[in-house]
Amino acid sequence: MKRVQRGSVARAWVFVILGLILALGLGKTALAAEKPYKVGAVFSITGTGSFLGEPEKKTAEMIAEEINKKGGINGHPLELIIYDDESDSTKCNLAVKKLIKTDKVPVIIGPTRSGESLAVVSVAEESSVPLISCAASFKIVTPIESRKWVCKVAGSDSHVVEKMYEYMKSKGIQKIGIMSDSTGFGSSGREELLRLAPDYGMTILADERFGDKDTDLSAQLTKIRSAQPQAIVSWSIGPTQVLSVKTWRDLGMANIPLFQSHGFGNKKNLQLAGDAAEGVLLPLARVNVGPLLPDAQPQKAVIMAYTKAYEDKYKEPISSFGGHAHDALNLAIAALKAVGPDPAKIRDHLENTKGFVGMHGIFNFSPTDHCGLSKNDLEMVVVKKGDWALAQ
User: Fold this and answer.
1) Euclidean distance between the first and the last CA atom of the chain, given in angstroms as a whole number
2) DSSP string across 322-379
C-alpha cells in the first residue's frame, strides 16, 4: 500500500494562508471556511490492474486540480488523498482502513477492481463511511441489505451480459463458448454469463477457465473450437485480454466472432493487440465513443468535455476506467457540496441522486439500487481499423 503524493505544494499554500488568517485574528468563521474537504481514493496504480488504476488516478487528480482552481467546494479546498493498493486485496483493505481511521475521510472512491472492492465492502459497512466503487461486479452492491454504505459507478457485469446476449440473439447466435480468468472480475462475469444464458435462449457449449497471469491460452481456445460454438466470450482483465485476442487470431478462429467484456475498454489494448483485434465485439460505456454519438445524446457534451481535458493534459486517449474515477469523484463532490463532510448525509445524498449525467450513463440511484445504471447505458462496439466503431 503506497500513498500517492499529490498537490503537496498547493496544500502547503493552503496552510500558509490559514496561518495568516489566524495571525491576523480574522476569527474562527474565516478559518472554518477554508477547512479542506477530504476525499479518499484507492486505485490499482501498480500491479496487474495498473492499466485500469493509472487513468483513474490521473482523472481524479485532474478534477481535483480543476475544482481547486475554481475556489473549491463551497469555498473549501478539496484534499484528495490517494493510495495505491498495488492490485492486492490485503493492501487495499489496509488502505481503506487508513483512510477511515487515520485520514478521517468522509467518503472514499475506488477501489479499481472487483476483487479488491469486494474485500473492503465490510470495512465501509462497519465504519459507516460511504464508498463509491469503480468496479463492475454486481456483488459489490448486492444484497442491498448489507451494502447500505456502498455504491458503484461501473455498469454491472449483469448489464454487460444482457447487452451482449441481446445483440447475439439479434444476430441469430444461440450456441456459445465462454472463457474467463480467475480474478473476482472474471469469476463474477462467468457467473452472470451462466445465470442469464437461459433468459436469452443461449446454450453454453464450453466453459474454460485460466489464470490472470497465464501466458498461453491455446488449450482453452482449442477446446472451445472443438465444441463448434457460433461465438466466443472472453471475460478477463489485464494482459490475458490481449492474449486471448492474439491467440484467437493465430489459431485461425476469426470465423467465430469473439466478444470481450467491458474490461477490454482501453485503447491501449487495441494498440497491443494490433490487427488481431479487428472485428472483436464488446459492450462499452459511451465515454469510449463520444465522437460517434449524436449531438442530442444527453451524455455527449460532458463526455467530450472530459475527453478534451484529459487528452490535452496527458496526451493519451481516455478509457472506460478514467471515466469511472470521473463519475465517482464528481458524485462525491456533488454530495459534499450539498450536505458537507458528514458521512451519513453523504450516504443519503448518494442514494437519492437522480439524473446525474456521467461518463458511464445517467445515474438514478435508489434505496434498492446502488448502481443506478442499466444495459441501456451501454453501446455495442466493434473494433474497426484499430479504433472503436458502433456495431450495426
Assistant:
1) 44
2) HHHHHHHHHHHHHHHHHH-S-HHHHHHHHHT-EEEE-SS-EEE-BTTBSS---GGGEE
Q: Average the pLDDT over 68-74 and give the result.
A: 97
* pLDDT tens sequence across 143-162: 999 999 999 999 999 999 99
pLDDT in tens, 273-302: 999 999 999 999 999 999 999 999 999 999
23 has a pLDDT exceeding 80:
no
Residue 226 to residues 139, 204, 253, 288: CA-CA distances in angstroms?
33, 13, 11, 34
Looking at residue 275, what DSSP letter applies?
G
Strand 78-84 with 37-43, pairing: parallel
Neighbours of 46 (CB within 10 A): 15
Cβ-in-10-Å burial (0-12, 13-18, 19+) of 320 comes to buried
With 0-12 / 13-18 / 19 or more C-beta atoms within 10 angstroms meaning exposed / middle / buried, residue 352 is exposed
On the question of a cis peptide bond just before residue 130, with omega within 30 degrees of 0, the verdict is no
CA atoms in the 13 A half-sphere facing the CB of 12: 5
pTM of the model: 0.85
pLDDT at position 354 is 98
The residue type at 190? R
| Listed residue (364, 362, 345, 333) closest to 149, CA to CA | 345
Give the span between the Cα atoms of 51 and 268, in whole angstroms: 8
Contact 289, 323 (CB under 8 A): no
The candidate with the shortest Cα–Cα distance to 96, out of 76, 125, 62, 138, is 125
DSSP assignment string, 148-207: TTEEE-SPPHHHHHHHHHHHHHHTT--EEEEEEESSHHHHHHHHHHHHHTGGGT-EEEEE
